[in-house]
Design a protein that fits this description.
Chain lengths: 255, 299
Amino acid sequence: MTSPILELKNVSTAVNQGTAQETQILKQINLQINQGDFITVVGTNGAGKSTLFNVISGLLTVSAGQIFHNGQDITNMSEEQHTQFLSRVFQDPKMGTAPRMTVAENLLLALKRGERRTLRSRHLKNYLPQFKDLAASMNNGLEEHLNTATGALSGGQRQALSFLMAVLKRPDIILLDEHTAALDPHTSEALLQATNQHIQADRLTALMITHQLEDALQYGNRLLVLKDGQVQADFSGSDKAQLTTEQLYDYFAEN
Amino acid sequence: MNLMVSAIGQGLLWALLGLGLYLTFRILNFADMTVEGTFPLGAAVAVTALTHGCSALLATLLAFGAGLVAGLITGLLYTKGKIPSLLAGILVMTAAYSINLRIMGKSNISLLGQKTLFSSKFLQGLPQYFDSVLIGALVILIITVVLIFILQTEWGQAFIATGDNPQMAKSLGIKTDNMIIMGLMISNGLVGVCGALIAQSNGYADINMGIGTIVIALASIIIGEVVFGELTLNQRLVAVTLGSIIYRLLLLAVLQLGFNANDLNLLSSLVLAFCMMLPQLEKHLRLRKTLLKGVQHYD
């Protein structure tokens, strides 16, 4: 049997460590994520969802436990090193792109994710046809704006670009941190569908935080419920397929 | 006419200061006060090296090296020491004053009788002030071409992204701390060279020659932006040089109006403040509309 693509063993993390205000955010989390898993993550505010992403992406260090990527211990790996195999889309469309650089320049930056940047010429023109096709896959007119500064794009286009930047160089794991929360319902739905298509077509391994229970049920093959820094439930297969919004909502209320 | 040529020559020489600050102020979004210390540092190093028998080229390169070190220290204070950018620059700027005194041994050194970059027979044979124009144009051409090349490389794009959105840059694996340190080093290296060139052009180095340099650098950048408007990054680098020349011509015009030369720093600040307020003035007074009306034909 192959090892999981990502594994968390007894992972805990705290803020204000060593002081009277020390607070445990994640408490002994155990999680195995397999190749091709598309996991939706739900939980109340403060449940530890974003902290879980911060720990996985190396932004936060763990206070206890270990994290493995393809069997290799990455617990103490730097945030930069994580980018060699992991990408992330943030909730705020402004966080994922460089506003004064063009769409094509942003995509080129993402193509070199996790790589050493040298004094080689960037050869942007060579990549334009590829970028145009890729941008067209989002069905929101982004391909017409390859030479537009991203700061001039709409929030939906900018977030679509952030997503494309995250998948352009195939990541082993992609973290989607409420990446449609700041968009209007129509744009949000369109981006979610495009996200799902890309993940299914490229068999990507993804974790997606959402507060929309319908989306959590509709997308992905697994569903995690986080509460008070712990995994409260982990639904997959037929369990997830049979789960209803009401049951999930009750689950929140009861727990 | 001579004064115009002199102003253009000075504009070209001082443009290097603007280009250096452009890298940090506009691209990295880092208000770097170090330049007020690095400029006299470059002058002090070059002049001291020249008086100790170094060639003019080597003395200028040493000034570049000294600028690199000053930028490195500011970068380390900011990235590793977690000192706010403004304070990190002020600390190095203040420390540089003592270092400069140590290097020079006194507050003023003359280059009388020393061979400088401006001493060659060819340059001496040119009409008055054309030596500054030629040297300034040559240096600016080389530095601008090198900067344009570097900014179009993979490294250059990562450098721009670091200033534009550091969080995004980090999430793409760009070592933003290294980028900031290298940007500050290159910037201050160029400012050091500018100090060395101005000292050689003026024929002396003075411990107080750094006062007001940040305003001059900002003036070059802002005037270039105000006058030429929307530009590509490459064009903006050229606009800094043109801004520097326009700034010198403006100062010349102001002095020609009879203002006291001792008020130069006050006038510099006023010119810069005016340029920086232009967009607001334009908005409130509808300047553009008014100006356009002046050239429109009415049937």
